[in-house]
Design brief:
single chain, 2 domains, 8 helices, binds calcium ion, four-stranded antiparallel sheet
């Protein structure tokens, strides 16, 4: 899952990027509203954390422009405590949730997990597909109850496929959601990681759809 953080406070920006990276997300960041708007307009993020008080372009304007242009990714806004009018303006502009500053990082992470699973139609933080279970709170992966150790990229790949199970995902889409903007992207590496996941999870969990991409499907869903 690839996220965008738009926050002008350099310390807070750094802390958010570090905590989200540690939680297994790929993170791009911007320090003003204009750069943030541009990134959110041109890159396919799974969710955005958007501060409202930003230089160059304020957060509400950034969000309104995205929504007007049909950008539907979930957006979590950061508001100043006790500024109820900010929250109202943020929700009216198209925000999905908010956290008031100062906040505990754990709350931001929990709200993000909720936004990501709702955006992909899941009600629980445990994702299941056949014998494979992914607990998105602890990043724990099991196959038939047995714990499996994955590298961070293998986990990201599996988590993305699990969130979108049943749908065919192209290699290009995977590359766009698994790497940050500075990464030298090569969609051939995806094949290598799919191979490693198959070895760890079982051969049949990830299906190759020739010429289109990959699909994760529980055996009973497979057609
Ligand atoms: Ca600010």
């Amino acid at each position: 899952m690839r996220l965008l953080v738009v926050e002008d406070d350099p310390d807070l920006n750094r802390q958010l990027v570090a905590a989200l990276g540690e939680a297994g997300y790929v993170v791009d960041s911007a320090k003003d509203g204009e750069e943030g708007h541009f990134l959110g307009d041109t890159e396919p993020y799974d969710a955005v954390i958007l501060d409202l008080g930003l230089p160059e372009m304020d957060g509400v304007t950034v969000l309104e422009k995205w929504r007007r242009d049909g950008r539907t990714m979930p957006v979590l806004i950061l508001t100043a405590r006790d500024r109820w009018s900010d929250k109202v303006a943020g929700f009216d502009a198209g925000a999905d949730d908010y956290v008031a500053k100062p906040f505990y990082m754990e709350e931001v992470l929990a709200r993000l997990r909720a936004l990501l699973r709702r955006a992909t139609g899941h009600a629980s933080s445990e994702l299941e597909c056949g014998p494979v279970r992914v607990d998105t709170r602890s990043s724990r992966v099991t196959v038939n109850g047995r714990a499996i150790k994955l590298t961070s990229l293998e986990y990201r790949l599996l988590a993305y496929l699990m969130h979108h199970q049943g749908r065919v995902i192209s290699r290009t889409e995977l590359v766009e959601h698994l790497y940050d903007q500075d990464f030298d992207r090569d969609s051939n590496t995806i094949e290598v990681f799919v191979g490693r996941l198959r070895r760890k999870l079982g051969k049949d969990v990830i299906e190759t759809v020739r010429g289109l991409g990959y699909r994760l499907a529980a055996p009973e869903d497979a057609v």
